[in-house]
Amino acid sequence: MINKKVKNVQEALQGVTNDMTCMFGGFGLSGIPENAIAQLVKLDVNGLTCISNNAGIDDFGLGLLLQKKQIKKMVSSYVGENDAFERQMLSGELDVELIPQGTLAERCRAAQAGFPAIYTPAGYGTEVSEGKETREFDGKMYVLEYAFKADFAFVKAWKGDAAGNLIFKGTARNFNPNMCGAAKITVAEVEELVPLGTLDPNNIHIPGIFVQRIFQGDVYEKRIEQRTVRPKL
Amino acid sequence: MINKKVKNVQEALQGVTNDMTCMFGGFGLSGIPENAIAQLVKLDVNGLTCISNNAGIDDFGLGLLLQKKQIKKMVSSYVGENDAFERQMLSGELDVELIPQGTLAERCRAAQAGFPAIYTPAGYGTEVSEGKETREFDGKMYVLEYAFKADFAFVKAWKGDAAGNLIFKGTARNFNPNMCGAAKITVAEVEELVPLGTLDPNNIHIPGIFVQRIFQGDVYEKRIEQRTVRPKL
Amino acid sequence: MLDKNGIAKRIAQEVQDGFYVNLGIGIPTLVANYVRNDIEVEFQSENGVLGMGPFPFEGEEDADVINAGKQTITTLPGASFFDSALSFSMIRGQHVDLTILGAMEVAQNGDIANWKIPGRMVKGMGGAMDLVASAENIIVAMMHTNKRGDSKLLKQCSLPLTGVGCVKKIVTNLAVLEVSNKGFKLLERAPGVSVEEIINATEGDLLIEGEVLEMKI
Amino acid sequence: MLDKNGIAKRIAQEVQDGFYVNLGIGIPTLVANYVRNDIEVEFQSENGVLGMGPFPFEGEEDADVINAGKQTITTLPGASFFDSALSFSMIRGQHVDLTILGAMEVAQNGDIANWKIPGRMVKGMGGAMDLVASAENIIVAMMHTNKRGDSKLLKQCSLPLTGVGCVKKIVTNLAVLEVSNKGFKLLERAPGVSVEEIINATEGDLLIEGEVLEMKI
């Protein structure tokens, strides 16, 4: 078994430098790599290009990096709920590339799977396809979208083992599995690092081959963005 | 919950007619839809185009359909271990299209995921790419391969429920998940149909949306092609 | 005239037995409340869940189980979780039967604009562009006119598009309309709304054939 | 001169700590037996398993757990099962560090032919074309000459290709060679084999620089 376990978040993020392109798993605040983000704040690296479906909120998630102006460019599908984001974008400090959510997922998967590009119907005939190659297949139009090229992918899983195998929980799964192996170095943080052989080989969502470093996060706040409940009868 | 459960293999295969294109899960004899194949033999449909990684052996798997000359064309990556196959191919009765295994998997996945075509490096510069469109990305050459178009996909899973959710076991998983939803109608046969709500939503390999019909197979022989053991010490 | 719940109620009638449905944020979310009890429908949310149930009881929220609107949800027996790539495989591969979403503008050729107003803060398209480019069956839920009273059913969209020629049906507070090659075909009037009022509120070409019945909700 | 196990033994020296390795059928399969015990290596089989262990004890075979050669296998702690698409994502995405496979012919430009002999029954390429088109690190394990005594290391392949310009290293019963832009570079001689014998058995250009050491196995 090839050991991917690192001591802590400091070791996990070794090699991260200014101006890198980094992927971040998560949908809203669900399934985000909380510990990696906190460490990036500490490291004070800047000029980052961040590939992430969302940009966090003002005081959590990628919002923490935005507060410190560590992000040069966001590649996302939806970036609401963030004042710092809005200010920096409107002032031109922050570059933003908005792309369809399915395109985001598949450009990650393409990088993971060794595909140079994909043809997707999403965005055809809109601003998103401007300047991009388009093509007809069976009477339907598609846009050519390229695989991402990233330096680091930061993902968060529920359980993992030293071999780097990952299991996600609920909708905290989202983009995390698609980003594993989609960057030069994939750093996985898990809520629980379990002993080798504990995870059922049949139930592993992402085999360790896609992960270079794994560690158990110190703490997970797992903030809820839209707490919605119904009254108990 | 949308009910996908059908009474038996007869009901599951309703609508299969001559000259259809059918996908079959399985690698060698592992994870093949044994009951669907047996029923196709009974139905005596012919002129079939079969997309399957392998072609079975003389008296099991797709070999049973070959014996009765029900297959017009095989699309596979490896077709050894089958005398009937060899005779029919050499005599020109059987048309054979050999394609790389990863290309086979991804052409299924493309159909499942709504992609018209993919660019793969496999087969570039070989007979496989003859007459096909090729293209360079980042200095590497790729071949354009199209999504399959199939009428039926026959897959075999370990456990399933009436919603069509599937869980596979071991390497019997192979092409089965990639073929689900890659044809107009996906027929899943399972070793065990469990009550709804029994399967952990986190561990489902294929959500029921990709499956149109599900039934529990009467019997599974699960023949081993290359029994290889080491002596007990 | 319908309120938001009325629009949702009318759209719920379009949901058929055996449908997998993706609901957008806003009015579409309300549709789930009005689907008949005697049919089986499963709701998909593009962040990675199929078989969504109602909101959780207080104290039972799970940060790891949310919908695309980031709201805490529950799941029903037979539900499944999956990653974003597989989620959009469901959508792009046309396994989802019906997509219901809101819009700022719809054009009579089926174009839709719902993600960007130039000059204003743009939040993004989320999964909307994938949904409209892929779905065969798209219903738009919206008010017939915007806050300034201008029609949202246009000859041509003025805002940046989300998708081209994709909308099939529109349900507004005033009417049910279908996209046809001769303009918006008026199918039904909302209770108490006259054809005249609909004509006045519609900038695009309106196709009216015979008597237009009042919708039943 | 090496036998098949000798070739496997020599190739095992190329396997480094932390490598994910895909082994082809035949001699490559034997490599697993000779990998040093003090390094960590995981074997991937393209039918959908990572972390393969030894063959099962008699009576413990599981029809649902096989390798790409359709042999019954076991798995080690930390193993995982996955579908064919994800399996080839590992291969195509260059997550597998080393591919070892057999060949009928190798050309001095790195071309490889190992799947088809015109006029004979063709079984197919299986996963070989994906492997050779994707892997950055490919070692060919084969006899230096075929049964008729003809060299398998050629200026140009005569058989239909499996992949172009992809082979980096070749280990035969006679030698270890590297593909270079000036021909096959002779790195090592098999025990008891002279440079002369290697020259005679090699049809392609052979690049010999200085003294060629005997391999240590």
From TrEMBL, chains A, B:
<dbReference type="InterPro" id="IPR004165">
    <property type="entry name" value="CoA_trans_fam_I"/>
</dbReference>
<dbReference type="InterPro" id="IPR037171">
    <property type="entry name" value="NagB/RpiA_transferase-like"/>
</dbReference>
<dbReference type="GO" id="GO:0008410">
    <property type="term" value="F:CoA-transferase activity"/>
</dbReference>
<dbReference type="InterPro" id="IPR012792">
    <property type="entry name" value="3-oxoacid_CoA-transf_A"/>
</dbReference>
<protein>
    <submittedName>
        <fullName>Succinyl-CoA--3-ketoacid-CoA transferase</fullName>
    </submittedName>
</protein>
<keyword id="KW-0808">Transferase</keyword>
<dbReference type="Pfam" id="PF01144">
    <property type="entry name" value="CoA_trans"/>
</dbReference>
TrEMBL record, chains C, D:
<dbReference type="InterPro" id="IPR004165">
    <property type="entry name" value="CoA_trans_fam_I"/>
</dbReference>
<dbReference type="GO" id="GO:0008410">
    <property type="term" value="F:CoA-transferase activity"/>
</dbReference>
<dbReference type="Pfam" id="PF01144">
    <property type="entry name" value="CoA_trans"/>
</dbReference>
<dbReference type="InterPro" id="IPR037171">
    <property type="entry name" value="NagB/RpiA_transferase-like"/>
</dbReference>
<protein>
    <submittedName>
        <fullName>Succinyl-CoA--3-ketoacid-CoA transferase</fullName>
    </submittedName>
</protein>
<comment type="similarity">
    <text>Belongs to the 3-oxoacid CoA-transferase subunit B family.</text>
</comment>
<keyword id="KW-0808">Transferase</keyword>
<dbReference type="InterPro" id="IPR004164">
    <property type="entry name" value="CoA_transf_AS"/>
</dbReference>
<dbReference type="InterPro" id="IPR012791">
    <property type="entry name" value="3-oxoacid_CoA-transf_B"/>
</dbReference>
